Inverse folding.
């Protein structure tokens, strides 16, 4: 059984040193186990180049450790100090318009800048040498939120140079690159890799293959940047190395970064995300404004469990209003507790609140903490105490394989971002709609990467919008004896964004071909005979496979051979509910219709029930208050 724990993010450099012991004591009294520090402290560790001031950090680690806390030490590379820019004036990322992303906040670096990379290697080496064997430092965090504030794609000279090298590695010759990208079109052919530019500032859209190569390259640069730090740390410590990812952020392949790390973590801001990035209707936003979307947190928990190969944390948990969303309401009483328990039910080893005390200065002064700026308890503190007490009587929360698997792939998100064909064909929205549909049927779900996944333990597998299906996945589906749903728009492109011939979906055994596609503008739809409609996207199909759903005018709307189904459209909510129900019935997966706002999650022993509603709800025989959490042996 894995021990679950709470923690908090703390910035000793923000507070007078005489307050540290009291802070540490209160953290321990609250029942917190972990404290993450250091990730933005470079200007205090090295105020001028090569003048190192680590003594204060030594003392901070001692104070926290002596109070019984375990330290997660962050590398400070997300916030290069001002002198770094004097030393490396070309280290900034450039946006797609060629404008520098300047100093004065954070993440002002280009992942491809070799000089900055060296500085990072140096500071991480110094930290690792000094604290790698420190008994209080029991985990490390690399950098902070790679990609935050849209910082993965950079159009700098450094990026251009690195991209040319990357292309030379991948394609070996300009002729091969020209062939792969189809550069004969519009006379875009190159005679030399030195002629290859970045896909910005073109007159009209760049070649999608060029754009896709740049997305793959940019993701690889993040992997490489992270790996440099990991390689240094591994030489000096055996403690687990973690990175804190974000919600709904897809600009690099998290599975690739995660492969070099021991634990995945993510930063969960349920109210901020509902307000600023889920594309929810105003009604939905109002209904859940103090609770967060009922499926968003769970989705990311399941995603990052996969990224961490089973080991994952919430590194930052919203404790009250944040400062960065368009509107920043306070959580309903009980939600700070609910969010933590939901994470544990999905297998989190730790949930750390962001942050200990609200800071009265600078950008995040309006962001709540567990304490107010004056040090008095903020509302979240009591809920953290409650969770800590409940963890003492910890129910067994070990995870178990879910009945349903959902495939998630970053490259598919890039492909449809580059070539949506209909403005609202958004990969994340499609996958998330399916995830939500499954949760509304009371299901627990495992999210799996497209490559290197094993389907054999599942009864039902969904593969929505997977632009390019890896050969291994295709072979597994061929052998799979459960029920699978592929599509829409799966196996629709080669890796180089070409339409494959034979035409999609080209699934072994399924005699069906996509002969044409159309995107549907808002309000337009293709009705289905059994109810509901396709929206956003519809594919015309031909072939001899069994047709198990038809459009209102009799065209194929779902095809099947054995347990393998192909879905040629984007189902609206009611069509999706019916289709998922039908697939679950066929797969022998038991379902139940969840009351509005109620969700469940099964562990190996328990069923956890969460009420995201703002009022009471009933689940089975149980009345749940708003923000209620309930668990029982299943
Ligand atoms: C995260 C970030 C933290 C802090 C927090 C505020 O994205 O990692 O440093 O800025 O948001 O909500």
């Amino acid at each position: 059984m894995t021990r679950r724990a709470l923690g908090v993010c703390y910035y000793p450099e923000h507070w007078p040193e005489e307050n540290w012991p009291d802070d540490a004591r209160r953290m321990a009294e609250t029942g917190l186990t972990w404290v993450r520090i250091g990730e933005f402290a470079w200007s205090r560790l090295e105020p001028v180049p090569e003048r190192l001031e680590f003594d204060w950090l030594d003392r901070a680690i001692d104070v926290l450790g002596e109070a019984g806390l375990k330290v997660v030490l962050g590398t400070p590379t997300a916030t290069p100090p001002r002198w770094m820019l004097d030393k490396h004036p070309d280290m900034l990322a450039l946006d797609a318009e060629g404008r520098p992303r300047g100093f004065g906040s954070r993440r002002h670096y280009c992942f491809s800048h070799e000089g900055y990379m060296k500085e990072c290697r140096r500071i991480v080496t110094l930290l690792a040498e000094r604290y790698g064997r420190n008994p209080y430092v029991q985990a490390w965090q690399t950098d902070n939120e790679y990609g935050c504030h849209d910082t993965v794609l950079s159009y700098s000279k450094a990026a251009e140079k690195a991209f040319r090298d990357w292309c030379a590695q991948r394609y070996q010759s300009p002729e091969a690159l020209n062939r792969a990208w189809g550069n004969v079109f519009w006379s875009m052919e190159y005679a030399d890799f030195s002629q290859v530019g970045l896909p910005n500032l073109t007159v009209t859209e760049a070649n999608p293959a060029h754009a896709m190569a740049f997305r793959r390259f940019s993701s690889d640069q993040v992997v490489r940047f992270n790996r440099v730090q990991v390689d240094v740390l591994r030489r000096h410590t055996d403690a687990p190395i973690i990175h804190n990812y974000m919600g709904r952020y897809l600009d690099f392949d998290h599975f690739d970064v995660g492969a070099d790390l021991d634990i995945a973590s993510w930063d969960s801001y349920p109210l901020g995300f509902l307000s600023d990035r889920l594309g929810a209707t105003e009604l939905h936003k109002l209904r859940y404004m103090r609770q967060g979307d009922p499926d968003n947190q769970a989705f990311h928990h399941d995603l990052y469990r996969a990224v961490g190969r089973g080991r994952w944390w919430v590194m930052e948990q919203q404790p009250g209003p944040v400062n960065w969303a368009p509107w920043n309401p306070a959580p309903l009483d009980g939600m700070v507790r609910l969010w933590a328990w939901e994470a544990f039910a999905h297998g989190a080893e730790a949930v750390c609140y962001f942050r200990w005390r609200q800071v009265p200065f600078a950008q995040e002064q309006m962001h709540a903490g567990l304490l107010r700026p004056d040090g008095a308890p903020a509302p979240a503190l009591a809920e953290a105490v409650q969770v800590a007490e409940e963890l003492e009587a910890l129910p067994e929360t070990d995870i178990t394989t879910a009945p349903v698997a959902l495939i998630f792939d970053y490259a598919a998100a890039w492909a449809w971002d580059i070539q949506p064909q209909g403005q609202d064909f958004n990969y994340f929205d499609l996958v998330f709609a399916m995830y939500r549909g499954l949760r509304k049927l009371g299901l627990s779900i495992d999210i799996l990467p497209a490559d290197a996944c094993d389907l054999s333990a599942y009864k039902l597998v969904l593969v929505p919008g997977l632009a390019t299906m890896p050969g291994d996945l295709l072979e597994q589906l061929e052998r799979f004896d459960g029920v699978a749903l592929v599509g829409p728009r799966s196996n629709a492109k080669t890796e180089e964004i070409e339409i494959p011939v034979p035409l999609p979906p080209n699934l072994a055994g399924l005699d069906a071909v996509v002969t044409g596609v159309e995107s549907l503008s808002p309000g337009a739809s293709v009705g289905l005979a059994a109810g509901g409609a396709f929206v956003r996207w519809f594919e015309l199909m031909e072939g001899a496979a069994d047709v198990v759903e038809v459009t209102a005018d009799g065209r194929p709307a779902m095809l099947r051979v054995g347990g393998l189904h192909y879905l040629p459209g984007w189902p609206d909510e009611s069509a999706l509910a019916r289709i998922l129900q039908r697939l679950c019935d066929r797969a022998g997966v038991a379902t139940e219709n969840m009351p509005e706002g109620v969700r469940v999650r099964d562990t190996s022993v328990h069923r956890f029930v969460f009420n995201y509603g703002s009022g009471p709800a009933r689940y089975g025989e149980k009345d749940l208050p708003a923000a209620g959490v309930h668990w029982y042996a299943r």
